């Protein structure tokens, strides 16, 4: 439904106008596909991380995983634009960015996971560790800015705040399987994720090897986050907001939480793309829109939950 609303924002003039048809095919459809892929990736990985870390605040942006991916993206973008010509770099970036972001997401993921286990997964410790990693990543990006060309700085600043307009069919063709395959594999693990609610010992009695399972799932989450950052930048609040709402209304069964989170994550990003299309004459960074929409909704949800208790 939200996809139909986005595509019909300017009516159906593309049916008769070649210019509007070109805009639809070359701009709107890539934005729509990007919103779907990134929304699914962020919401699914966040819902999974919250189970693994036993922490409802385990959003990739808050705990530092997106920061790790963004740091590697910044390194690749800035050093690539300096050392290579713009035309050469445009073709190489489709392949380099997802790989670099995946590596960054993997490193930060395992650091967060190791710290969480060492600190007994206490909520405040995980969040503080994530803030520390995000701060270090931000500081390194800041140092990179000192040596980057002005145009690269402008592009990177906008990209780090999130944008659905950075893709085309070539980058989507490369990124889609790196999101869809891990997403399907995570969906197949929903029953085993439920077992983790009972604790590692109870899960082991059911034939699950908790450490191996958690490592494999963490790799899938890092691949989802890294690929989403590589095509859309760092997008705030979706990973915190969507699984929270799903669990509030549909409970904690991951067989429901995971597909609903993916669906609503995609829907929210399509909605933000529609706002960009309808309201503004220029492209607003996605994180500004998701935070503006999600912040009040999240506070309302917390207040409502408090009243119920």
Structural account:
The chain starts with a helix and ends with a helix. The protein has helices at residues 2-7, 18-52, 65-83, 86-118, 123-146, 150-160, 169-187, 190-196, 200-205, 210-232, 238-250, 254-278, 286-308. Helix 3 (65-83) crosses helix 10 and helix 4 (86-118) runs antiparallel to helix 10 (210-232). The protein is mainly α. Helices cover 79% and strands 0% of the residues. It has 13 helices and no strands. The longest helix has 35 residues, at 18-52.
- Strand and helix order: HHHHHHHHHHHHH
| Approximate strand percentage | under 5%
What is the alpha-carbon Rg in Å?
19 Å
Tally of separate helices: 13
Q: Which range best describes the helical content: under 10%, 10-25%, 25-40%, 40-55%, 55-70% or over 70%? A: over 70%
Termini separation (Å)?
35 Å
Instruction: Characterize the main sheet.
Output: none
Overall morphology: globular
Count of individual beta strands: 0
Look at the structure and give the mean pLDDT: 81
SS class:
mainly alpha
Q: Give the uncertain stretches in residue-range form.
A: none
């Amino acid at each position: 439904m939200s996809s139909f609303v986005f595509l019909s924002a300017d009516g159906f003039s593309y049916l008769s106008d070649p210019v509007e048809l070109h805009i639809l095919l070359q701009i709107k459809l890539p934005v729509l596909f990007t919103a779907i892929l990134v929304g699914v990736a962020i919401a699914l990985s966040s819902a999974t991380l919250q189970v693994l870390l036993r922490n409802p605040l385990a959003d990739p942006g808050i705990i530092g995983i997106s920061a790790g991916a963004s740091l590697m993206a910044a390194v690749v973008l800035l050093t690539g634009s300096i050392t290579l010509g713009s035309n050469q770099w445009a073709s190489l970036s489709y392949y380099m960015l997802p790989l670099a972001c995946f590596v960054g997401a993997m490193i930060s993921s395992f650091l967060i996971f190791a710290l969480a286990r060492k600190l007994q997964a206490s909520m405040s410790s995980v969040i503080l560790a994530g803030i520390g990693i995000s701060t270090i990543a931000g500081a390194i990006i800041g140092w990179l800015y000192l040596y980057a060309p002005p145009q690269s700085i402008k592009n990177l600043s906008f990209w780090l705040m999130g944008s659905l307009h950075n893709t085309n069919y070539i980058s989507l063709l490369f990124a889609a399987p790196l999101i869809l395959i891990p997403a399907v594999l995570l969906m197949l693990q929903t029953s085993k994720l439920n077992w983790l609610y009972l604790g590692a010992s109870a899960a082991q009695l059911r034939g699950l090897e908790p450490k191996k399972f958690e490592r494999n799932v963490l790799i899938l989450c890092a691949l989802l986050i890294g690929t989403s950052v590589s095509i859309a930048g760092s997008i705030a609040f979706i990973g915190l907001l969507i699984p929270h709402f799903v669990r509030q209304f549909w409970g904690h069964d991951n067989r429901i939480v995971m597909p609903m989170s993916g669906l609503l994550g995609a829907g929210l990003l399509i909605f933000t793309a529609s706002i960009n299309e309808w309201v503004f004459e220029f492209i607003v960074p996605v994180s500004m829109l998701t935070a503006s929409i999600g912040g009040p909704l999240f506070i309302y949800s917390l207040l409502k939950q408090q009243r119920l208790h």
